[in-house]
């Protein structure tokens, strides 16, 4: 049963290889080099700031304010290596951004970064679906097209029948804490019909699979 809801060389004689290498890799200043090479541990704090542990001490970095409690920043006003290391860590996905927190995928429990103020249900990259993805229903084998991935838990998502998605017997094998994924059946697609005009169905995330024959 399915459940509905609408919703850098010499100037005299340039060395070709050196010139080429410089063009590919812009010069790195000392602080950036140290930010990349020195041992540091970056840990997020609940107030959008970060603790940076180094051999020389422990400092607090605020990316939003562009500040750090180290002497290099406090006395010289420099964009210190600690600030740079935190920015690099965020860009690399090692720590969450200031507006994110560490959450857990509702399907597999893998740690994933989610919006800091959103306490809803979330999925990791492995289990997430993009709108437009063709998926299969594990229960019926039918194919659907994903229209939206909500952050509503299956036990909180209400269908058109004003029932919780988790209440349906066909969803008993799937987590009530999983986010509801909305989709339309492929068989209902028509060239003249907009996707938004089709009846939308909802499923607990793990009921759908992106592996479609």
From TrEMBL:
Domain of life: Archaea
Biased composition (Basic and acidic residues): 15-36
Name of the featured protein: SWIM zinc finger family protein
Assigned keywords, A-Z: Metal-binding, Zinc, Zinc-finger
Positions of region (Disordered): 1-42
Organism: Halorubrum ejinorense
UniProt entry tagged with the keyword Metal-binding: yes
Pfam family, one: SWIM
Domain SWIM-type intervals: 59-91
Keyword ATP-binding: no
Coiled-coil residue windows: none
InterPro entries reported for this sequence: Znf_SWIM (IPR007527)
PROSITE patterns: ZF_SWIM
């Amino acid at each position: 049963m399915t459940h509905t809801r609408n919703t850098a060389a010499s100037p005299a004689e340039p060395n070709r290889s050196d010139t080429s290498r410089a063009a590919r890799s812009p010069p790195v200043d000392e602080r950036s080099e140290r930010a990349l090479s020195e041992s540091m541990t970056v840990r997020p704090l609940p107030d959008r700031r970060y603790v940076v542990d180094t051999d020389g001490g422990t400092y607090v970095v605020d990316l939003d304010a562009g500040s750090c409690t180290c002497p290099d920043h406090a006395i010289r006003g420099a964009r210190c290596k600690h600030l740079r290391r935190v920015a690099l860590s965020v860009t690399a996905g090692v720590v969450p951004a200031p507006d994110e927190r560490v959450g857990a995928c509702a399907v597999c429990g893998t740690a994933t970064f989610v919006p800091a103020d959103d306490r809803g249900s979330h999925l990791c990259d492995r289990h997430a679906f993009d709108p437009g993805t063709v998926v299969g229903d594990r229960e019926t084998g039918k194919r659907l097209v994903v229209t939206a991935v909500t952050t509503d838990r299956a036990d909180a998502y209400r269908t058109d029948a004003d029932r919780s998605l988790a209440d349906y017997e066909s969803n008993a094998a799937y987590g009530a804490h999983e986010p509801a994924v909305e989709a339309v059946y492929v068989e209902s697609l028509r060239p003249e019909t907009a996707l938004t005009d089709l009846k939308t169905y909802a499923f607990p995330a793990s009921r759908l699979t992106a592996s479609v024959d």
